[in-house]
C-alpha cells in the first residue's frame, strides 16, 4: 500500500479560519489512492464541497475516498449518509461509509465505527450519560427520522454495533492480499492519551475482533494523539492531522 495515503481529522474549515492550509505540509506525490478517515469539516452540506475542491488542487478527486467522522455530522443529521454520498459524488469523489475498496493487492474496509461507550469507569448507562454531558456530538448532531431531535449516545452505540457487524461480515470473507481497516474512531484503548477524561467517546476495545481476523493494518483518527502499536499480528496507527494550534 505504498501508493496509498490515509489521513484523518483534516478539519479544513478550522485551518482556513486560522488562515492556514495543512495540505501544504503533506506530500501527495505518487499517491494513487487517498482515504480521508473522517472529520473533513463541520457543516458538511455547505463546507464539504469547498474542502474537497481544496484537496482536488493536490490530487485528482477520482482517487479520493471519504468517510465521515463525528464532526462531519455537526449541524447536520446522524442519518444523513445518503446526502453525504451525494455531495461526495458531485465532487467526483467516492463516499466510503461501510465501503470495501480494492486497490492492487490490498482491500480497505472503511467505516466511521463510533464507540460502544464501555471504556469509562461507570456502567454503560453512566458512561453514556457522561458522554452526553461532555461531548459536542450530542449538541450539534440531529436525528431526522425522530423529529430532528438531538442525537443521543445510544444512537451512536447502535451505529457502532452496525459498523462492527459490517466489519465482521467483510473480514470473514477470505482475501488473498493484504487487508487494511480504516475507521474514524479508535478500536483499542491503547490509542488513547494517558488520563483521557472521556475514553468511552473516543475508543472501544475490539481486541477480540482484531485477534480473530488479524487484518494486517488498522488506521484510525479521532483521538488527535500520535499512537502506533500492535495487537496480535495487526499493526494499528493513528493518522490524525488535528486542529491548527491557534484553534485547539
From TrEMBL:
This is 3',5'-cyclic AMP phosphodiesterase CpdA. Gene3D superfamilies: 3.60.21.10. One of its GO terms (molecular function) is hydrolase activity. Residues 4-224 form the Calcineurin-like phosphoesterase domain.
Amino acid at each position: 500500500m505504498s501508493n496509498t495515503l490515509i489521513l484523518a481529522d483534516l478539519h479544513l474549515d478550522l485551518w482556513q479560519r486560522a488562515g492556514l492550509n495543512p495540505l501544504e505540509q503533506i506530500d501527495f506525490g505518487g499517491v494513487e489512492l487517498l482515504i480521508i478517515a473522517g472529520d473533513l469539516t463541520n457543516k458538511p452540506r455547505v463546507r464539504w464541497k469547498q474542502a474537497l475542491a481544496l484537496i482536488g488542487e493536490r490530487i485528482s478527486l477520482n482517487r479520493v475516498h471519504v468517510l465521515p467522522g463525528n464532526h462531519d455530522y455537526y449541524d447536520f443529521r446522524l442519518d444523513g449518509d445518503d446526502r453525504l454520498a451525494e455531495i461526495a459524488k458531485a465532487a467526483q469523489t467516492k463516499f466510503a461509509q461501510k465501503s470495501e475498496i480494492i486497490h492492487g493487492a490490498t482491500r480497505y474496509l472503511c467505516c466511521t465505527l463510533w464507540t460502544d461507550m464501555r471504556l469509562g469507569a461507570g456502567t454503560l448507562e453512566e458512561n453514556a450519560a457522561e458522554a452526553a454531558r461532555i461531548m459536542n456530538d450530542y449538541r450539534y448532531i440531529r436525528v431526522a427520522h425522530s423529529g430532528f431531535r438531538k442525537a443521543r449516545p445510544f444512537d451512536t452505540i447502535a451505529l457502532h454495533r452496525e459498523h462492527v457487524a459490517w466489519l465482521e461480515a467483510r473480514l470473514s470473507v477470505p482475501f488473498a492480499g493484504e487487508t487494511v481497516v480504516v475507521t474514524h474512531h479508535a478500536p483499542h484503548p491503547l490509542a488513547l492519551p494517558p488520563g483521557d477524561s472521556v475514553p468511552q467517546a473516543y475508543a472501544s476495545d475490539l481486541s477480540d475482533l482484531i485477534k480473530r481476523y488479524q487484518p494486517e493494518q488498522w488506521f484510525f483518527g479521532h483521538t488527535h494523539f500520535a499512537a502506533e502499536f500492535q495487537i496480535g499480528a495487526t499493526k494499528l496507527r493513528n493518522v490524525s492531522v488535528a486542529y491548527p494550534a491557534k484553534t485547539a
